[in-house]
Automatic annotation (TrEMBL):
Keyword Transmembrane helix: yes
Highest taxon, organism lineage: Bacteria
Organism, scientific name: Fluviicola chungangensis
Protein name (Swiss-Prot/TrEMBL): Uncharacterized protein
Keywords: Membrane, Transmembrane, Transmembrane helix
TM segment ranges: 96-116, 122-143, 150-171, 177-197
């Protein structure tokens, strides 16, 4: 074996697996308390992901693509050093909420143009759009910090606003080619958020456990 790395287990604070592998991940061995609990030969298997039975539960090994490194999952829980850890994946979704914030700003400007001549209504519409915009900004900030509730907040607000816009469009209250384009974009955005709900749910599961107290978790070279 050429390299070694410690993988702390999420559901077992301060306990970890030791993974050793050869160059190119041609062979990988997994140890727990100095006992071999899993071994895989062939990087192709790791690229697809492989699950092995163990006393700890199902042990899943998978090579991530960017960067190329090994992810270890024990009984459905990612090690916190995994590249594809749900909380890390959740942070990436903050980009969606920054885009939605910009989208809300543009949509708010269109709404103001539509309701500007309506006495009193313009002020109400402006206030509502401002609140929605602020909520999206808050969602983007807190999702970027790995807070699942930020995702749920942004998802709920976006879903509600999409429903209201759809009802208004179908009811004939508003219309126009541009608004139909915006609605199509909204629905596409909603689909993307729905697809990422599982990431937020997985992050909630993982955050129930405290981070382990570990010293050196970096890859270490066993031999030259």
């Amino acid at each position: 074996m050429d390299f070694e790395k410690k993988y702390p287990m999420t559901q077992r604070p301060n306990e970890y697996l030791v993974v050793q592998w050869t160059r190119g991940y041609k062979q990988v061995n997994v140890y727990f308390n100095d006992e071999l609990i899993g071994s895989v030969q062939g990087a192709a298997k790791l690229l697809k992901g492989i699950s092995l039975p163990s006393d700890l539960g199902t042990l899943t090994l998978k090579l991530s693509e960017k960067p190329v490194t090994l992810d270890v999952i024990v009984d459905g829980y990612h090690s916190r050093v995994n590249v594809s850890h749900p909380v890390k994946e959740l942070k990436k979704t903050s980009t969606y909420f920054w885009i939605i914030s910009a989208f809300a700003l543009i949509a708010g400007g269109i709404d103001m143009g539509i309701f500007l001549e309506w006495s009193g209504v313009g002020t109400i519409v402006f206030s509502m759009n401002l609140i929605v915009f602020v909520l999206y900004i808050l969602s983007a900030v807190f999702v970027g910090q790995g807070k699942p509730w930020g995702f749920y907040l942004g998802f709920a607000v976006f879903s509600f606003c999409t429903l209201i816009a759809l009802l208004a469009l179908m009811g004939g209250l508003v219309g126009g080619f541009i608004l139909y384009i915006f609605m199509a974009v909204r629905i596409g955005g909603l689909v993307i958020l729905i697809m990422n709900l599982k990431t937020a749910n997985a992050a909630v599961r993982h955050l129930k456990y405290r981070d382990p107290v570990m010293e050196d978790l970096l890859d270490s070279k066993i031999r030259e």
